[in-house]
Specification:
- The complex is a heterodimer of chains A (about 100) and B (about 375).
- Chain A has helices at about 15, 55-95; strands at about 5, 35-40.
- With about 100 residues, chain A is mainly α.
- Chain A folds into two domains: about 1-55, no CATH class; about 55-100.
- A two-stranded antiparallel ribbon of chain A has the order 1-2.
- Chain A is rod-shaped, with a radius of gyration of 26 Å.
- Chain B is of the alpha+beta class and about 375 residues long.
- Chain B folds into three domains: about 5-50, no CATH class; about 70-90 and about 180-365, no CATH class; about 100-165, no CATH class.
- Chain B contains 14 helices and seven strands.
- In chain B, the strands form two sheets. A four-stranded antiparallel β-sheet of chain B has the order 4-7-6-5.
- The longest helix of chain B has about 35 residues, at about 230-265.
- The chains are: A mainly alpha (about 100), B alpha+beta (about 375).
- Chains A and B meet through helix 2 of A and helix 10 and helix 12 of B.
Chain lengths: ~100, ~375
């Protein structure tokens, strides 16, 4: 995934609309201001050596992953519990028939 | 002719105009929408310009107002600048009235007094002929006595004491230096003003032991101002400064540990709550910074009002170093942790980081033991 650049001139339309520019672009096509690396999600200015997202947005993504794992884990546990319960009931029924 | 008084409302963008009619009896009081007048930017500027050194000294505001420390410092600086202006004018008058200039400067830098005998012109001739002597009465006051032709001394003539050039050389040097540093003071106050605006919003409703120390320091200072006894006054002022200093350094330690927590990524331990923990710490950092700023401004303001400009510059220099160590070094990450900051140069943290630039230079110049005066001659076109 490529990094994105953004215009940091607060008076510029590109900044107000949070328009992302390609990594190769050096200057804003709207105001001519120099472009900087920005966070793909929140448009915060980033240092050159950082990733695609700012620390906070990255943490937010991690939180989402954890929540999904937690929810999926909960669902799987519930399914397992139901299966085990049904299984027990089935075994009981079979033993009564015999 | 009508007089228009403008009152700017702090919370709304409305302006009130009080119009006084020439007869003095009738007056109207009307609300004017600032937007309609196109003065929105002006109003915002007035509202936040506590540190504008070109504006007149403001009335003292309530101590519960978050802007109090800044107003105290600002008024202190304005007073010092006004005093230095008066001294500068005195220097100019002294130099202009008594020539040659160099002789005058040499005399004004000498400590001591000269004695002037208050006599008429006819008696001055008698002095030249050696017919005068200086005597003192029982209380130690000095008189001149003139010897008559028969060899006896006549009536006593009072001697008035006249200090040289009415100028204290140290005061003169300090005052002129303040005038010379005015440009730098303007830059510093501009920077403080930027930080101050972002800080005031987070001050309300915060309480902790360390913040309690700040309030204690503030309250002690207010008490010290009305104490009559000089000893008690200086003791209470010292205690106030001590409480404020303690509060500052404790809050700075808390802020540094909060930054350390975020730097080490300790929030990652709690799964699914990373953002919540980052925001929580950032909130604490905001509050700590706000009170550090307030306590520093108050300490600087107290020193400035006591005439201790070197101590004031040391406080501001410490503040600058604190910003250097905590904010400047971590500004890239602070910007990313803070959900309200855009990361631009005008953003909260980057504008705070800029404060370090001018302060150390001012402190260096004020604390410099070798003070040099440069006097320039300005020719004015009188046409």
């Amino acid at each position: 995934m490529k990094k994105v650049r953004g215009c940091m001139n607060e008076k510029c339309v590109a900044n107000q609309k949070k328009t992302p520019y390609k990594e190769e672009d050096e200057y804003c096509s709207k105001c001519g201001h120099k472009l900087y690396y920005v966070c793909k999600k929140c448009y915060t200015q980033l240092p050159d050596d950082s990733g695609n997202f700012c620390v906070r947005c990255y943490a937010e993504k991690e939180d989402q992953k954890d929540r999904i794992i937690k929810t999926t884990g909960g669902v799987l546990t519930a399914v397992g519990f139901v299966v085990v319960n049904r299984g027990k009931k089935g075994i009981n029924t079979l033993s009564k028939i015999k | 002719m009508k007089r228009v008084m403008t009152v700017v409302s702090g919370t709304t963008s409305m302006k009130h105009e009080l119009i006084v009619e020439p007869n003095g009896k009738k007056y109207r009081y009307k609300k004017v929408n600032a937007k309609e007048n196109g003065n929105v930017s002006n109003i915002a500027k007035i509202k936040n310009s506590y540190m504008d050194l070109t504006s007149p000294i403001t009335d003292e505001i309530s101590t519960y107002n978050p802007a109090y420390p800044t107003v105290l410092l600002s008024n202190g600086l304005k007073t010092r600048l006004a005093e230095s202006q008066i001294v500068a004018e005195k220097v100019y008058c002294a130099l202009a009235s008594e020539m040659p200039m160099l002789t005058q400067m040499q005399q004004s830098l000498k400590k001591g007094v000269k004695y002037v005998v208050d006599i008429s012109e006819s008696t001055s001739r008698a002095i030249e002929e050696g017919k005068i002597k200086l005597t003192t009465d029982k209380s130690g006051r000095m008189y001149a006595q003139i010897r008559d032709s028969n060899g006896q001394f006549g009536s006593q003539l009072p001697i008035i004491e006249e200090s040289l050039a009415h100028l204290d050389p140290v005061q003169m040097a300090n005052s002129l230096q303040i005038q010379a540093l005015r440009g730098q003071l303007d830059v510093i106050t501009g920077q403080i003003n930027l930080i101050d605006q972002s800080v005031r919003a987070v001050l309300q409703g915060q309480q902790s032991d360390r913040i309690g120390l700040y309030h204690s320091g503030l309250s002690l200072y207010l008490e010290s101002r009305v104490i009559v006894s000089n000893n008690l006054k200086s003791t209470i002022t010292a205690q106030s400064l001590s409480a404020l200093s303690e509060s500052t350094f404790q809050l700075a330690a808390v802020m540094e540990s909060d930054i350390e927590y975020l730097l080490n990524g300790e929030y990652k331990i709690a799964k699914g709550k990373n953002v919540e923990l980052i925001d929580e710490r950032m909130q604490k950092i905001y509050h700590s910074f706000a009170f550090i700023h307030q306590a520093t401004m108050l300490r600087a303001g107290i020193y400035c009002n006591l005439g201790e400009l070197s101590a004031m510059s040391t406080v501001l220099d410490e503040y600058s170093r604190f910003i250097d160590n905590t904010v400047v070094n971590n500004v890239d990450l602070l910007v990313q942790w803070d959900k309200t900051d855009s990361g631009s140069e005008e953003g909260v943290w980057k504008s705070r980081a800029k404060l370090k630039l001018e302060m150390s230079d001012l402190a260096k110049q004020l604390n410099d033991p070798d003070k040099t005066l440069f006097l320039g001659i300005l020719k004015e076109d009188m046409k």
